[in-house]
Amino acid sequence: MQALILTAYGKTGALALAEVARPVAAPGEILVQVHAAGLNPVDNAIVRGEFKPLLKFELPAVMGSDLAGVVVEVGAGVTRFKVGDAVFASVFDTGRGALAEFAAVPEHAAAHKPANLDFVQAASIPMVGLTAWQSFHEHALVKPGQQVFIPAGSGGIGSFAIQLAKQMGARVATTTSTANVALVRSLGADEVIDYKQQDFTQVLSDYDVVLGTVKGDGLAQALGIVRPGSKVVSLIGPPTAEFARQRGMNVVFRCVMGLLSRKIRGLAGQRGAAYSFMFVRPDGAQLAAIGQLLETGAIRPVIDQVYPFAQAREALAYLDQGRARGKVVVRTAPAP
Predict the structure, then answer these.
(1) Which range, of 88-92, 100-104, 137-141, 277-281, averages the lowest pLDDT?
(2) Residue 283 above 60 pLDDT?
(3) Count of C-beta atoms within a 10 Å radius of residue 231
(4) Which residues contact 113 (CB under 8 A, 6 or more apart)?
(5) Would the pLDDT of 310 be above 80?
(6) Which of 42, 109, 110, 256 has the fewest beta carbons closer than 10 A?
């Protein structure tokens, strides 16, 4: 079968479409014919080698984390799916890849595809949906009436997180460029800061939750708008010693990550805020709950570009520019 393979870190030329053996469904797995694969910024970070210490990822490896497709084989012990079921899933950090014609998916990572979404729309959801869900339900414990700041609201994670926070009863503020103000308002953002015109730290105050989605100084700046008792959840780091402990890393890694996060934890502490690093995990039950929100229309996919499988490398390069409005998806099979 065809798959997008990474053979070496830090080299764009090490990404190529290649023929690899078709996987089989091991016990507890389903084999999915992939119809579409959603791309995420972490995919490019993996190519650059930024996640080498953190991921179960051995080269050469099939790229991609998010997929939607049809079950063609079920392994022993599988009870939730049968051949012919349309599913969507994240295989992030499982040692498997989504940018391929077929993918073996752990049963626990998959959910039935929402009936009202096509495969491209469904493939755009898993990582951003699970990231937002776990950030708000497990880390920040968002409550109705709280104020939540989600920067970069027109991006893949931002466009989903705004909608989920609103469904949880929060008041949401975001930043975006002038061209995307209307988009983020349509997603439910209550306070929209055009970063080309305003500094969000001069406009916002007393926020309960900050979702860290932007590299650079943005996270430290966002600490200026939080109130005592707030939660700051970062998706881009730095990781903490607690994260290293949860991952089963040795004491050296725990110390290193404690040092890496010491400054931001100290700044958060000065504001009476709690800082945590969020590393998404596949979870089919959570994905099913997200699917229900999608089926009712409470949340909608936001897709910027759809590329054919032959242009998967170009799709990753486009995503890496950081200008996508919503998600970038690769169609790996012809539209039905």
Answers:
(1) 277-281
(2) yes
(3) 23
(4) 68, 86, 87, 88, 119, 122, 291
(5) yes
(6) 256
**φ, ψ of residue 245 in degrees (nearest 5):** -65, -45
Indicate the domain borders of the chain: 2-125+301-331, 128-277
Q: Report the first-to-last Cα separation within the chain, whole angstroms.
A: 20
Three-state DSSP class for 227? strand
Residue recorded with tokens 């079921």:
85
CATH domain 2-125+301-331 topology:
Quinone Oxidoreductase; Chain A, domain 1 (3.90.180)
Identify the residue whose tokens are 């931002």.
Answer: 158
DSSP for 73-89 reads EE-TT--S--TT-EEEE
Cis before residue 238, ω within 30 degrees of 0? yes
Residues 175-186 have pLDDT tens digits of 999 999 999 999
pLDDT-derived band of residue 277, with 50, 70 and 90 as boundaries? very high
Rg of the chain taking only CA atoms, in angstroms: 20
Total H helices, total E strands in the chain: 11, 16
Which DSSP string do the residues of 183-197 spell out, in sequence order? HHHHTT-SEEEETTT
Indicate left, alpha or beta for 102 from its phi (over 0: left) and psi (-120 to 50: alpha): beta
Query: What value does the mean pLDDT take over residues 7-23?
Result: 87
Show Cβ contacts of residue 28 under 8 Å, excluding neighbours closer than 6 positions.
75, 76, 77, 78, 106, 107, 108
Which residue type occupies 263? K
CATH number for 128-277: choose from 3.40.50.720, 3.20.20.70, 2.102.10.10, 1.10.10.10. 3.40.50.720
Sign of CA pseudo-dihedral 82, 126, 59, 334: positive
